[in-house]
Amino acid sequence: MKTCLVVDDSKVIRKVARHILEALNFSVSEAGDGREALERCREAQPDVILLDWNMPVMSGMDFLRALRASEGGWKPKVVFCTTENGMAYIRAAIEAGADEYVMKPFDRDTLESKLQIVGVA
Ligand SMILES: [Mg+2]
């Protein structure tokens, strides 16, 4: 079973993502901010990370930079979640080490196709 870490400060988004990912046969864990996500990754690097941009404590971008600089931190594929007005950040996120991005709100088909693109679904 592939593992996915869902990183988002919205409990509702995490719940929706978990529902979709479990239907796609992923084992899902959650983090509410970047710092918590780094701790999860230190315990075990997931196969893929679904990453929100705006979060308290540590943003998605700061998390991504710290992850990629850490040992084994290039293992997880990172799908960065953005909203339409966050489009300007996509290039920066890709440069920081994100593999793909998905627009919020996403549905099962969209998420599945992004997971296929990064090679985990
Ligand atoms: Mg957020």
Structure description:
With 121 residues, the chain is α/β, with parallel strands linked by helices. It has a single domain, classed as Response regulator (Rossmann fold). The chain has 5 helices and 5 strands. It has a 5-stranded parallel β-sheet. Helix 2 packs parallel to helix 3. The longest helix has 13 residues. The protein is globular and about 30 Å long. 32% of the residues are buried. It binds magnesium ion (MG). The site of magnesium ion (MG) has 6 residues, from loops.
What does this entry show, briefly?
One of its GO terms (biological process) is phosphorelay signal transduction system. This is Two-component system response regulator. The protein is α/β, with parallel strands linked by helices.
Query: Which kinds of small molecule does this entry bind, naming each only once?
Result: magnesium ion
Quote the average pLDDT: 94
Distance between the termini: 10 Å
Order of helices and strands: EHEHEHEHEH
CATH architecture verdict: 3-Layer(aba) Sandwich
CATH C-level class: Alpha Beta
The CATH superfamily is known as: Response regulator
Would you report the number of β strands? 5
CATH topology: Rossmann fold
**Domain count:** 1
Q: What share of residues is helical?
A: 40-55%
- The amount of beta strand, in percent, is 15-25%
Give me the side-by-side strand order of the main sheet: 2-1-3-4-5
Alpha plus pi helix count: 5
Question: How many strands, what sense, and barrel or not for the largest sheet?
Answer: 5 strands, parallel
User: What coarse outline follows from CA principal-axis ratios?
Assistant: globular
Question: What would you report as the Rg, rounded to the nearest angstrom?
Answer: 13 Å
Low-confidence stretches: none
Pfam families: Response_reg
Keywords: Phosphoprotein
InterPro entries: CheY-like_superfamily (IPR011006), Sig_transdc_resp-reg_receiver (IPR001789), ST_Response_Regulator (IPR052048)
Protein name: Two-component system response regulator
